[in-house]
Amino acid sequence: MKKKIIAGNWKMNGDTASATEIVEGILDAANASSHDVVIAPPFVYLSSVAEKISDSKIRLSAQNLADHESGAFTGEISAKMLSDVGCTYVLVGHSERRQMYGETNTVVAQKTALALSNGLTPILCVGETLEERESDQWKDVILAQINAVIEHCGIEIFQETIVAYEPVWAIGTGKSASAEIANEVHEFIYYTLTSKSDKIRPSLKVLYGGSVAADNSAQYMSQTYIDGVLVGGASLKPSVFSEIIRSVE
Ligand code: 13P
Q: What is the model's pTM?
């Protein structure tokens, strides 16, 4: 059986004290889990969190990376820097980056390539808005998001690139997608990718994100095509995130 992934995206929240509190509060659950637990703190806390989790099973992710290798890009953080401070994963193309910071499918594809060439596992976020779901365009939107990455990086990268389906209408709204809706989209993503290459079938992982909570995580995890969760708000509460980790069989 594939290991599942339970990832927590802290977004732009917290401080030094709360970062410590979260890490200490989830250590037991993470170390006892037979699955992979990943946390994505804000950039400035990555180094200190890396130190705190060095003897644990928790893995470190960044929330974003620059779309260039290095150079005069004031305020940006490169993939190499993220590897250097202990990240093994990086979120790419989160809907908040796409919507608020104008990240296009092309930029997301460039970032995915840079993550991979610097030894990071990208967690490629895709998903439709409410309007796109209601007008039945979700397949086209997700295809465009995925195809831009395939065109730039090739299909084989999905042997090591994780996909996260995060419907924009379910993020931070408390209005999670039903497990059935999520599974339908995951199945679509799974067959879209595996029909292009058999090689990715054994390792492809697609996570669900959007209002995941302690009382719905087990439902997602039990779906055939859901290989884990990407948790936002609930990952800031150590007891709740621990419950989510423990909800995975
Ligand atoms: P919420 O769990 O707060 O809805 O956020 C989901 C998300 O965007 C994770 O990346």
A: 0.97
